[in-house]
Amino acid sequence: MTSSNSSERLFESLLAMQNEYQMSLPPVAKWNPELNGDLDMRIDREGRWFYQGGELKRPAMVKMFSSILKREGDDYFLITPVEKWRIQVDVAPFVMVAMRQEEESGVSGVVLTTNVGNDVLIGRENPFWIDTELEATPLPMVMVRDALPGVLSRNVFYELVELCQPIAQASGDGDEQWGFDSAGQTFSIGSVV
Q1: First-last CA distance in the chain
Q2: What is the pLDDT of residue 180?
Q3: Closest residue by Cα to residue 114 from 43, 184, 162
Q4: What is the reported pLDDT for 104?
Q5: How far is CA 23 from CA 10, 115, 183, in A?
Q6: 179: helix, strand or coil
Q7: 3-state secondary structure of 92
Q8: How is 119-163 classified by DSSP, letter by letter?
Q9: Residue 2 pLDDT
């Protein structure tokens, strides 16, 4: 058994909870209706949902809409078996608002909580990366589910940075690569000058 597989087995309860949440969601990946058009709905950089210019403030409504969200390429859609509406997403549909570290048998796992309340264990299924294309400044991201990313809030990223250690020397320029381990995987946050 590889150390990666044994690390994942250590976090079976967390992964089971994450899978249970995903199984409770509508099967949007199986739905392929024709595009109805563009809906005047937007998710801003902070994970706030707006419809026709007004913010949706009811958490239950935001959670329901996030459960029928689908991504195709760079476009995001609200989808049902018979309707498909394109919406605008400024950066990512989810914002990671809390972080905790779990440990089992000496292996650590970083668990992030989304703005709609579900937990994501950073690992092979839900990788972390630094995106350098969406905005002028690099963004810390994690894959939440089904090609739907989440951006880490500033506070959560700072908490994550506190876990980081040098992981490798960058090529020739003297910068060290820094990163953290989660569920048997190592993730880089980049170099430190």
Answers
A1: 38
A2: 95
A3: 43
A4: 78
A5: 21, 19, 21
A6: strand
A7: coil
A8: EEE-SSSS-EEEESSSSSS-EEEEEEETTEEEEEPHHHHHHHHTT
A9: 43
Q: Could you tell me if residue 152 is left (phi over 0), alpha (psi between -120 and 50 degrees) or otherwise beta?
A: beta
What would you report as the CA-atom Rg of the chain, rounded to the nearest whole angstrom?
18
pLDDT in tens, 139-163: 999 999 989 999 999 999 999 999 9
pLDDT tens for 89-111 read 999 999 999 999 988 777 889 99
Output the CA–CA distances (angstroms, integers) from residue 134 to 92, 93, 139, 178, 187, in the order listed: 9, 13, 8, 22, 20
- Other C-beta atoms within 10 Å of 33: how many? 13
Residue with tokens 């650590």: 108
By the 8 A CB rule, do 114 and 144 touch? yes
Give the helix ranges, DSSP H, for the chain.
3-10, 12-24, 59-67, 154-161
CA distance 148 to 89: 11
Phi, psi of 61, deg, nearest 5: -70, -45
User: CA-CA distances (angstroms) from residue 104 to 8, 42, 64, 118, 142?
Assistant: 10, 39, 33, 21, 22
